[in-house]
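Protein Record: Sequence and Backbone Structure Tokens
======================================================
Tokens: labelled as protein backbone structure tokens, with as many entries as the chain has residues.
Question of interest: how does this chain fold, as expressed in backbone structure tokens?

___
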Amino acid sequence: MQNDVGSSALKQASRKRPGRNIAFKLSFELMDATKGNGNAIRKKEETHRMAEANRTFAYFH
């Protein structure tokens, strides 16, 4: 399940990059991901923050 989410985030972030060739967009997104930045990494961190907030909220109710 986590791999599906990760690859989906990479594909979506690649499509949003400027340029025409998806291979170049994907390669640049992968390079950014290995450096720890890029839209896919931002999406992953946002998802983890939301999961943590939901876990905390569920704990108190």
